[in-house]
Amino acid sequence: MEVLGIDIGGTGIKGAPVVIETGKIASERFRVPTPKGGYPKDVAKAVKKIVKHFSWKGKIGISLPMRIRNGVACTAANVDESWLGLDIVALFSDALGIKIATLNDADAAGYAEVHYGAGKAKLGKTLVLTLGTGIGSSLFMNSVLVPNLELGHLRMSGTTAEILAANSTRKRDHLSWEIWAERLQDYLTYIEFLLDPDLIILGGGVSRPKRIKHYFHLLNTRSELVPAHFQNEAGIIGAACAAMTNST
Ligand code: BGC
Questions:
Q1: CA-nearest residue, atom 9 of ligand 1
Q2: Pocket-forming residues, ligand 1, beta carbon under 6 Å
Q3: DSSP class of residue 85?
Q4: In this structure, are residues 140 and 238 in contact, taking their beta carbons and an 8 Å threshold?
């Protein structure tokens, strides 16, 4: 069975049909730029272009970088504040004429890893962290999602974890891999203290093999620490999974 997964980010909106049985992308993904300002109605129009591109009539799952409870946005950290309190299911279902499922983007990336990737068939507590513009987090107990963690916003050193240790900070402040890894290490130590996971999966662009070699060996955790299996497509694949569960 195929489900259209759509991942909404700060700069781009990507979508592709996903084969649910395997987690494989069924046809080449389609990307449109996130409209300037990222306002909900404009984003809904952009999503419509993706649905049209695939002439899609089936199930759709959409991931967004915000806490989503019962289909309603409860936070708006790196997006326009008009998302706050918005009924996301209604917004997209009305625009597309199809009922959609929605979830947080890190929860989606976590689904992709736990169902098909680095966390597949793992028992115990698995924590997935996505290091990008912000820090996304998702927690699974025996592959069951504990949604909406938002551990990127933990207070650390007088600021928040994602301001201190997101990959965007490394790039913006031209941090060396060593300095950035020290910050990431502090964050991981804090997270381990709070959650005591069995497995931590590091995702986002920095989990690519050519990036991993710069910093992974500098990290030290009690939990097993592994790079994510998926990078760019994790959100799409996990969003498709959401349409098969009740995680809205
Ligand atoms: C948002 C999260 C999101 C993460 C990664 C954070 O700023 O609050 O909801 O998962 O960025 O995109």
A1: 66
A2: 65-67, 75, 77-78, 104-106, 130, 132, 134, 136, 150, 152, 162
A3: T
A4: no
What is the rounded CA–CA span in Å between residue 240 and residue 23? 9
101-120 pLDDT, tens digit per residue, is 999 999 999 999 999 999 99
Exposure on the CB side of residue 167, measured as CA atoms within 13 A: 17
Hey, is 42 helix, strand or coil? Answer: helix
The span from the CA of 127 to the CA of 237, in Å, is 18
Whole-angstrom Cα distance, residue 78 to residue 11? 11
Ligand 1 centroid distance, CA of 9 (Å): 10
Taking the model in full, what pTM does it have? 0.96
Q: How far is the CA of 175 from the centre of ligand 1 (A)?
A: 21
Distances (CA, A) of 153 to 75, 104, 127, 242: 11, 14, 16, 24
